[in-house]
Known about the structure:
Number of strands: 0
Mean pLDDT: 95
Strand content: under 5%
Amino acid sequence: MLRVDHPRFRSALQEIEDSIDTAWNTLCADSGVTPGTPEAQELAQIVLQDTSEFGWRVVDGALKQLTCTECGSGLGTGPLGCTACDLANGLRFAAQEVGNEHTIRVSSAVARTRTRYTPRARTSYELLLPGLLESKLPTTAQFQRAKDLINQLTDDELEQLIDPAPFFGVL
Length: 171
């Protein structure tokens, strides 16, 4: 089984998607805009004009509302080298974080746009995501150990990793 098909990972990713949708729907309601309308697309474009003014979930929600005019993918999810998607993906990292959410934001961004990252880059973030949602954060030493072990595996082996324990220890 591939990691992306495992129920633990799929559940974590759904939890993130739901939280993004909730944040976006709240912004729409607060702005008097109905989600899924042309007005919501306009609101998304406004959010992307200065992502530092909004929480990261709102920014990711705005990106979900728009289609890339260059590649036709969801904005920020297209292939590497698509100028508009590269820019939009970068914008998501200028958004605000509440508390200690940096690792959740980065892990979820990588997991949600996994084709933009190499198997080595995405493996640790995807392995960690379910635990991060349970407030389980590895130490620097655990993360460095995991990186060393991950770097020894082939791309196919990386995609089949499901259990973070052999790499990060007990979190």
